[in-house]
Structures are given as C-alpha cells and as structure tokens.
Amino acid sequence: MEVNLNLSKKLDFADIDLTAPDRVIEEILSELPKETNGIILGKVEAYNGPVFSHTTFGLSELTKGDIIGALGGTKFDVQKNLGEIGQEINKYECFLYTPEYDKYKYRVFFVNYGITNYPVDIILEESVAESISSSGAYIYTCGTRDELESLIFKIFSSKRVISVMQNLIWINQAKRSARNVV
C-alpha cells in the first residue's frame, strides 16, 4: 500500500524568529534607562495570578448548571482527554518604576503565551488600552515577533504611558529632593 500524505506541501519549515515574548519585551525595556536619564526602568517578571478577567461561581450557581454534580454524580467527557497534553502556560507582568522609590510600580500589561511562544496575548491595563485604541479592546494577540514589537512600541509611546513616565520622573525628583533636605 502506497501512502502519499504530501505533508511537505502543507507544512512550513522555514525558520522564523520565535524568541520568547518576555525576552523581546526585556530588550525593548532595556532602552528605557538610556531614554530617561536612568530615571525610569521597566521589568518583566513571572506572574502566578490570573491574567484574564473571569467569573468564579459559588455553590448555588454551580448546582444550577450542573445537576449531575449537584446530585453527587460524576460526568466524564472524553473530549477533555483529547487534544493538547503537556501545554505550558507562561505568564508575566510588565511594569515601570523608578529606582528612587521602589514601593511604587505601574503595571502596564500582562503577557500570556504557550510552549510555541507565539501567538502571545498582551492584556493591557484599561487606561493604556483606551490610549492606543478607540475600540475598547484590551487583549491583543500577536502572531509574530514583529507584531509584538510593533504593539510594545505603540504602548510605550502612548499618551497614557508617557503620562505615567512623567509621573515617575516627578516621583524620582520628589524623593531626591526630600533626601537632600535632610
């Protein structure tokens, strides 16, 4: 029996830049000190909390939707055992701060991606989202490094983030002045 799947015509084997999104963002953030006279720094750190808004149901809501569960029965759905297995979820937070006052930081967005690195979800702080788009969307999905870089540049040059950076400069100046008075 001859099998001819012709997969080489269906799959793309071209090398593409799959640099981890958190590393791409770190590269961009490394420019901040140069651009702000060392006053503003940015950081990407691993994050363990939820990055998407969601609703958690209490017992009364659960029993309304799951009669079998409410009666003590167990429901088995084979679809939960098929598909992706061993998927990694990488979650990060990206924030701005000034070294003069480490108690304050401004979280700009969350980063969420799987084992293939792309697509990557960027979940923006609401006022930042409003500053870059009138659509009200605060979740952006980037399929490539170029799309991610373009979005990050747009975020950090937005009116809202520029305002946050100005506040960080003023916080830095106020803390330096207070220290010099003493």
Distinctive features:
single chain; 182 residues; alpha+beta; 20% strand; elongated
Helix content: 25-40%
Stretches where pLDDT is under 50 for at least 5 consecutive residues are none
- Class by SSE composition: alpha+beta
Strand runs, count: 5
Rounded radius of gyration (Å):
23 Å
Spatial strand arrangement across the major sheet: 1-2-3-4-5
What is the 3D shape? elongated
Query: Sheet bearing the most strands, described?
Result: 5 strands, antiparallel
H/E series? HHEHHEEEHEHH
Total number of helical segments? 7
DSSP strand (E) fraction? 15-25%
N/C terminus separation: 88 Å
Mean pLDDT, nearest integer?
87
Brief account:
This protein is an alpha+beta fold.
What's the topology here?
Blueprint: H1 21-29, H2 32-35, E1 41-46, H3 59-65, H4 67-70, E2 90-98, E3 101-113, E4 120-124, H5 126-132, E5 139-142, H6 145-156, H7 159-181
Antiparallel strand pairs: 1-2, 2-3, 3-4, 4-5
Helix pairs in contact: 1-6
Description:
It is a single chain. This protein is an alpha+beta fold and 182 residues long. The chain is 36% helix and 20% strand. It has helices at residues 21-29, 32-35, 59-65, 67-70, 126-132, 145-156, 159-181, and strands spanning 41-46, 90-98, 101-113, 120-124, 139-142. A 5-stranded antiparallel beta sheet has the order 1-2-3-4-5. Strand 3 (101-113) and strand 4 (120-124) form a beta hairpin. The longest helix has 23 residues, at 159-181.
